């Protein structure tokens, strides 16, 4: 997970989208998607972070089993919260299957990454 977060953090810096509250949300999204792939799909095969009009995170794994939200995660107890976090922090998310597995993706509107930037002193 650390390598995925570091990769994403550097991409945000390169694109000028670092230093905002939303950039921290992006890093948490990456962590959640990578953790879900590790726990439920045998691990991440590929992490793709792309910037166009919006920021898109895709985590590819080797299984076609689609993720399911835990029906009733317990507050204060670990487990079952990942997809709720993804849903809450992203503007859009979903899955797509392909012949070798699936991708779970999340998108954040670029406007959220450019607003609220800290002021330099």
TrEMBL record:
**InterPro entries named in the record:** Anti-sigma-factor_SerPK (IPR050267), HATPase_C_sf (IPR036890), HATPase_dom (IPR003594)
- Can you give the residue ranges of the Histidine kinase/HSP90-like ATPase domain? 5-106
Q: Which domain of life is it from?
A: Bacteria
Query: Would I find Methyltransferase among this entry's keywords?
Result: no
Keyword Lyase part of the UniProt annotation: no
Record key words, sorted = Kinase, Serine/threonine-protein kinase, Transferase
Instruction: Name one matching Pfam family.
Output: HATPase_c_2
Q: What is this protein called?
A: Anti-sigma regulatory factor (Ser/Thr protein kinase)
Source species, please? Streptomyces avidinii
